[in-house]
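User: Please fill in residues for this 327-position structure.
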């Protein structure tokens, strides 16, 4: 499960774990789960949204720590940090060890202008020396306790940069390297080019290192995931936007009915409200509505009505009224 800014928060991660790993069973409440005797499924690894190491040590640490909360059902869970400063990344890595995370990922791929302007995210592709220093600082901060991985892009301006960039990273003995098959310049404007993943695998094999290569970009179903992994020779794949409104993605279960999807949406909204009330605007959860409410006659009108709701109570009432009319 890919890290996504403003998306893979504690509420979203818990929903993904419940419905993909535990099939939507009644496993209790957030932080009070009971999964004894249940064999979990996928996803194999869950990532947090990216966390600013600068914010942790120069800003409001207590608020960011709330974004780093996780439940045991998410394990293995990896925290992703970003920063242009190796020393703060070192301190963030030590914090990850203290908090009991299963791994640390360094964001070297975010194309957002504000992140790149800081010298972080995709901007590190243009500063390979700093990127190497960052990796070594994170490893030092983790004390060798946690595996260190990277998520990046195929280049900054051109995929001609791929070989040198990926080669530099792979020489740092990483646990895994997740490659988004676009450049920073591409943003999301062009289709992901999975031939670049295949090229990265070849580079890895030529170097003879053990780093896992995970492909990322434009995966729209579980079968598509398997096809892309097989075709590229990657060790796995990382899924992002296809998860919106689809917490059952990794379960392999049949497509849920509109009524089932709406029931999960209510649960998601209630959990978001419980975890973030008085801290985050309820409007932030509405980015998930298109994923949950689309693909059937009347869904657009329902979605418009839900966008006007101000809390989970209104969400539930609007959906119940809709379902009553539809029956």
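Assistant: Residues filled in for all 327 positions:
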């Amino acid at each position: 499960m890919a890290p996504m800014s403003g998306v893979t928060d504690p509420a979203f991660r818990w929903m993904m774990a419940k419905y993909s790993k535990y099939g939507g069973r009644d496993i209790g409440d957030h932080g009070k789960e009971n999964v004894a005797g249940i064999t979990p499924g996928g996803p194999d690894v869950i990532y947090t949204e990216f966390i600013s190491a600068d914010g942790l040590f120069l800003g409001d640490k207590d608020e960011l720590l709330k974004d780093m909360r996780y439940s045991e059902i998410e394990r293995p869970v990896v925290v992703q940090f970003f920063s242009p400063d190796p020393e703060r990344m070192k301190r963030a890595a030590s914090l990850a060890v203290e908090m009991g995370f299963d791994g640390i990922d360094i964001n070297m791929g975010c194309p957002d202008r504000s992140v790149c302007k800081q010298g972080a995210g995709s901007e590190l592709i243009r500063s390979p020396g700093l990127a190497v220093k960052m990796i070594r600082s994170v490893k030092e901060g983790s004390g060798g306790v946690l595996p260190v991985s990277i998520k990046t892009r195929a280049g900054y301006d051109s995929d001609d940069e791929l070989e040198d960039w990926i080669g530099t990273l792979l020489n740092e003995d990483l646990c895994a390297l997740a490659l988004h098959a676009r450049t920073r310049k591409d943003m999301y404007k062009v289709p992901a080019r999975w031939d670049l993943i295949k090229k990265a695998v070849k580079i890895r094999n030529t170097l003879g290192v053990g780093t896992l290569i995970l492909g990322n970009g434009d995966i729209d179903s579980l079968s598509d995931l398997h096809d892309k992994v097989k075709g590229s020779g990657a060790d796995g794949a990382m899924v992002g936007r296809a998860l919106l409104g689809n917490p059952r993605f990794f379960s392999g279960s049949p497509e849920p009915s509109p009524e089932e999807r709406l029931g999960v949406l209510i649960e998601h909204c209630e959990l978001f409200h419980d975890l973030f009330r008085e801290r985050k605007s309820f409007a932030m959860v509405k980015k998930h509505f298109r994923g949950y409410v689309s693909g059937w006659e009347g869904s657009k009108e329902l979605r418009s009505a839900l966008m006007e709701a101000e809390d989970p109570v209104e969400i539930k009432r609007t959906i119940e009224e809709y379902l009553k009319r539809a029956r």
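For context: The mean pLDDT is 96.
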